[in-house]
Amino acid sequence: MKKLLYWLMGEKAGRTIVGSWNWLWGQPIEQGGKLTVAIAEESLQSMQESVQKLTSAVAMQVGSYEKAKKKYEEKVAELKRLEGTAATAQSMGNMDAARLSMSKAIQIEQLLPQLEGQVKQAEQYVNASKDKLNRERMKLEQYKTDMQNMKDLAEINEALGTIAKVNNEFDIGSARSQFEEAKNALQNRNFRENALAELSENPAEKIQGDMDKMLADDEINRRLQMLEADNPKKLPE
Description:
mainly alpha; 0% strand; rod-shaped
């Protein structure tokens, strides 16, 4: 199913969709969180599969190279054998056999440079493929380490998110701010009510009231003095 999806949508889009499917069966979506890790895991799996395919391809190249090399070595050995056979036939006076063997040897000798070139070229291809395979394996190991680091980072982010959520739920500072606002509002209203009371009082009535109080105090003091004059204090005998 995954391979079919990659073929239809392309590898990058396919990995994203597969990662989304994994999320649907897992944790909620978070930017840089679970979905990101799921997509990275899918990408890492694709890279592992690619490296496995490359390993198989290199193994086939090595097998073909070894086969070509062996064929070349067989031809070199056959050349030496035919030359030996021609020499033996010539020493025995069998010139027809000597000429036939030498003719075959010459044909192989003419073929050997071409075979040697092909073997060397195959060797170069194999060495290049081996180098590429080694590089891809090293990259894969690095990505595996990065994958683990991403998982650890996602866990840390999740923990930090939980801490932030707790802090927001128990935000004493917010309650303190609301309390101060209420306190200031009551104080401001008190100031306004006092100001309104002062402004609503008639200045003339206040002055008249103050004068009446002063006159009343003077009359009380005068009466007390009269009582004291009518009843002088007796000196002790």
